[in-house]
Amino acid sequence: MLNAVNAMAQTITQERFITDMVERHQFDKSYLEYLFNHAKVRKSIIKAMTPHPTGKAKPWYQYRRIFIQDQRISDGVAFWHNHASILKRAEATYGVPPQIIIAIIGVETLYGQNQGNFRVIDALVTLSFHSSRRADFFREELEHYLLLTREEGFDPLQLQGSYAGAMGIGQFMPSSFRSYAVDFDGDGRRDIWNNYADAIGSVANYFHRFGWQSGQPIVKATQINPTALDTLLGLAFEPKYTLTQLQQFGLKYHGDELANTSGLFIDLETEQGPAYWLGFQNYYVITRYNHSKNYAMAVYQLAQEIAHQYAQENSLLESN
């Protein structure tokens, strides 16, 4: 009986969603019913979205090993060579350096090789109506998905993505696609699945729109006064404190940035113990892509390794 009640509640919620889409966005009701009838609820998606029983994220040193690998670095260098002109134009247009764009794509999809094998509509319907975790968020994304497929002329039953509904080479959620995806090659379509120009331009535009500061630092190692750790950990995780304030709170940083430069405190767990960093506006922008300090640091360090190897290869080519 309980399962029947839950199924009825889900059906009503889904029906209300359809009614709302008809009233607010003038969708055809029978068309939406057809789409929902052909969407499949995937238990594997619910399982993938279920938090780890301990509720703890991997420590930084374990997380780092996943992404900072020789193969991922060399593949990133090859990606740079293959798309050098597009990356150069993206930097000129949006101010975001190639290595950062490449690292995002490398972390998200292995440079487009692993974009996800779930239908986006299956993922979003499953998470909107058959899972209690962030269901409101996924219903909003489902709304954006239906709107973008109508706007772009895509078949909603065909597009593939991750188990969370993220799409394409750069893994944009539907709302991000509508707000930040760009037609970077001017062919009249925003294709982030197959068109690397559009994918690169879209990632760069995303960073630009969230306030990337061209030529400015991202993150730097620092030390702290041992008695200040609790105070620093209690600060908001956003660059709302000046260097002067952070130093007053106990940060031992002596860089050459201006005293009124904004920053945030970062603590990471290494195999040797805790390590501390000063993050700047650009580090915070990376966290707008994924709200994780480990993710942002992985992107930064992968970008650094790719840039270093790319420069070495270019230097060897020029000397021969």
From TrEMBL:
Residues annotated as domain Transglycosylase SLT: 16-304
Gene3D superfamilies attached to this UniProt entry: 1.10.530.10, Bacterial muramidase
InterPro entries registered for this protein in UniProt: Lysozyme-like_dom_sf, Lytic_transglycosylase_MltB, MltB-like, SLT_2
Cited SUPFAM superfamilies: Lysozyme-like
A GO MF term: peptidoglycan lytic transglycosylase activity
Domain of life: Bacteria
A family per Pfam: SLT_2
Active site: 108
GO BP, one annotated term: peptidoglycan catabolic process
Protein name: Membrane-bound lytic murein transglycosylase B
Source species of the chain: Thioploca ingrica
